[in-house]
## 1
Amino acid sequence: MALLETKDLYKIYEVGENVVHALDGVSVTIDRGEFVAIMGPSGSGKSTFMNVIGCLDEPTRGQYLLDGIDVGGLTRDELAEIRNRKIGFVFQGFNLLPRTSALENVELPMLYNSLSSAERRKRALDALRMLGLEGREQHTPNQLSGGQQQRVAIARALANDAPLILADEPTGNLDTKTSIEIMELLVGLNLESAITIVLVTHESDIAEFSRRIIRFRDGRIVSDEAVVKS
Ligand code: ADP
Ligand code: ADP
């Protein structure tokens, strides 16, 4: 079943006399449980696409359905709620609240569901432990390594039962070994918990961890292929 579906999305920026089609008619369906990598040159519309499907930005026109809900018809509050309930963001730099502990960062989006504070705490601690962050619960992001920060963001998605993880260059700042660890974690979550993952990367080695690669160019999808595992 489609978890996300876009129909003819356009995002048009007018800056002075220039008109930029950041998205130029993007129609795509991503089913529950898929693991998709988005690739393409700089300026091809990848971030714009991620921001629209993450309900952080509105398209100029076109339709976006998330889990069957037409996002275009929602108010700001409804958007914030859907973002918190359905989407785990693993974005570089815009990941975690800086002055807030790992534990509280993981608990935050759960404020949008009806769990007791004890249950929220338990789920957060369990998720942090699953991601190998035991003993780091009280650390703030700047007291954690880049890889640990990404794992906190993934723990946050997991604790919150987010059906969708959006990751923008999740391994961009990480060394090779840590990058592979993060990717293996995502592969495990995708297989075991059926979490849908959409990630942007410009590295083929990273894209190979996914099962489908969508390539953008000039705001359009130019290829969409299954990854053949050797
Ligand atoms: P990518 O993530 O693939 O590098 P982006 O989605 O960031 O590409 O950008 C796509 C195009 O839209 C680029 O040409 C970029 O300059 C333009 N663009 C993005 N955001 C804005 C903005 N806020 N105002 C004007 N143009 C923008
Ligand atoms: P506004 O609707 O006021 O422009 P934003 O779109 O900047 O607000 O952000 C709304 C909410 O979405 C914020 O509470 C922020 O936590 C979250 N948010 C914004 N950008 C990102 C991002 N790149 N990754 C994760 N969460 C984000």
## 2
Amino acid sequence: QLSRGKALKDVHGNITMWVGTSTNIQEIKALDEQKDYFISMASHELKTPITSIKGYTQLLSQKYKNSDDAFLNNALKVMHKQVETLTTLVVDLLDVSKIKTGRLQPRKSKFNLSNLINEVITEISHIHPNNKINYVGETNASEIIADEEGIRQVLVNFLTNAVKYSPESLDVIIDLDVNDNEISVSVTDFGIGISHANQARIFERFFRVEGKNEKTFPGFGIGLYIAAEIIRKHNGNIGVRSEMGQGSTFYFTLPLL
Ligand code: ADP
């Protein structure tokens, strides 16, 4: 049982009544399991048509790349952007199923992290051209051994959230630090921030900060859950520092082999 109580007091401050709500944890668990089942079914069904639309969008862009038809060019740009968003969403949904069944395993290879960061910045800047993403710190890092697609996903999640949850501030900073034992990457925004109580919960599956923000910013509350799982599989650390109304810094570390 999860219970929340509030004491009602008389004028002398004596407690006269307790009012409370209690939620059965069993019910919450069953609901999460239903969500997991639905996610697994839906994401598998969505994967094939989205892959096909993505393929044809690329073919069309290729075929009409020299066209001076403004309408066509704009339509292709919008389609490309939206199909990328859909693909990311479906990959995330599939990953939730994989985590639940222990099938999310890192596929490690050697790659250059600075190059990957630059690629992801280009990708996000394309989708959010008004934001300014500043890459500071080590911009010429040597190669590391890790799951490149997994690390890309974490970077995309951090940067997308940084942009999404700072509607009034366009600046984002991404910082890479390398020392003898580990590398650390942080993404800082100057947006709405997260209360200390919620900071402890945002890496949970389906958790979203409640209230006005929940309706203003669309999402499923799974991006950080997946990011945490990916970093955990690399024996790294993931976390957040934040102050309400001032902004947030999300970071992860990876041990160097
Ligand atoms: P989603 O953004 O789809 O809800 P995430 O798992 O990526 O899912 O994030 C979980 C929750 O953490 C978000 O719903 C939001 O409330 C909070 N959050 C994440 N990143 C930020 C950020 N940069 N600033 C403020 N709140 C954030």
